[in-house]
Amino acid sequence: MALIIAVPVIVFAANGTVIILGLCMLAAPAWPAFRGTFTELMRSPPGLALIGLAFWIALSIGWSAAPEESAITAVRLLLLWLAGLAALAGARYFRIPKIGKLSLLIAYTAMLALYMAELATDGALISLFKQLDADHFTQFSDAAQREAYRSLLAFNAIGRGGVLLVLLIWPVAALLIDGGAGRSKGGLVLVLLLGATIWLLLQLPVGAAPLALLAGLAAFGLSFAAPRRLPQLIGVAAAALLLAMPVIAYTIDRPEALGIEKRSIPPSWQHRIEIWHYTADHIAEKPLTGWGFDGARHIDAKATRFVAELPDGSDIAYPNVTLLPLHPHNGALQIWLELGLPGALLAAALLVTLGFRIAALPLTTARRAAATAAFSATFSLILLSFGLWQNWWQASFWLLLVLFALVVQPSPVHSNEDA
């Protein structure tokens, strides 16, 4: 049921991903099995890092600018983590026939088909759902401008789902390259799906998605040369990058230092650079404790405006676009900004232990490569987009784990082959 609902939700309302996680949670087994999974997770190195992060989040609420709001967000985050754990327990408990696992492939293909239909019809369905009528945008006198604005709003509305395709392609890859008799056919199907996904992402207004897919593809290819070493290296490199991110963000304020004219960069990337530098300045003010969990939204209060530099030498100040929106659009900087050095160290420990966990899992080389690719793509997206504590984004991480658990579990029949 979750996979059926996932098809329209991910394409047309990616924020509803948390609903899909809730449906997966309903498939969780009785308490004894859940308790065993919970205990196993908490005793694992990633689990210990997650516990530490949860405790530090709870402590940091005390010095947040809005403790009540931060506490509500923290409780919601904890409930999502518990829901994800329950869903993961269900995925590990039940034994699903291979035909059932193929429903993931069908769902992913259906998502691509819906996106293709939207591209072919210039966003007809999402325009219908959101009641986007070009004639309503009377601020534009020209009919062509009104239609262009409608199209922009339509594809912005479905762009977020493209990011989830970047994550979900890897459980699909693990399904298709399971090493069975149909391996060559599965590889061909995967190539076709990857080609369609790449083409699709290039049409959508989410620049981080193609970059993250590229990072995943690079990790996937390199993993065959070093199947156990690479996820460990990625975990260590990701942790080092997270710890160094404030320094990196501060130094890229002026791209001219790298020989790049700032005016030659698209305004959206200029905005990212300014946000990151502005965030680094505030991290330097409270590097040890941070500003408190979920405190990023209260630091600037949308007061400082963003000014873009245009290629013709002019500047433009965008209305309602600030230097620190609700979050820094960089998960590493958000952790530093809100949780300080202890939070950064705990998050770095989580990344390292996840990398080593992937290396230790009893997987085939191909499936380990898919898991490594998912790890790399997810971290790339964390560094480029979205608030780290958003419900749908957190739910997406857990769904990725759940789908991998479903795909790589032994089937009821021929379990030795799948193991």
- Main structural class: mainly alpha
Quaternary structure classification:
single chain
**What is the average per-residue confidence, as pLDDT, rounded to a whole number?**
85
**Which percent bin holds the helix content?**
over 70%
Report the span from N to C terminus. 26 Å
Could you explain the architecture of this structure?
The chain is mostly helical. The protein has a domain at 2-224 and 386-418. 70% of the residues lie in helices and 3% in strands. It has 17 helices and 2 strands. The chain has a two-stranded antiparallel ribbon with strand order 1-2. It starts with a helix and ends with a helix. 41% of the residues are buried.
Provide keyphrases for this structure.
disordered C terminus; two-stranded antiparallel ribbon; mainly alpha; 419 residues
In summary, what is this structure?
The protein is mainly alpha-helical and 419 residues long. The protein contains 17 helices and 2 strands. Helix 1 runs parallel beside helix 6 and helix 2 packs across helix 16.
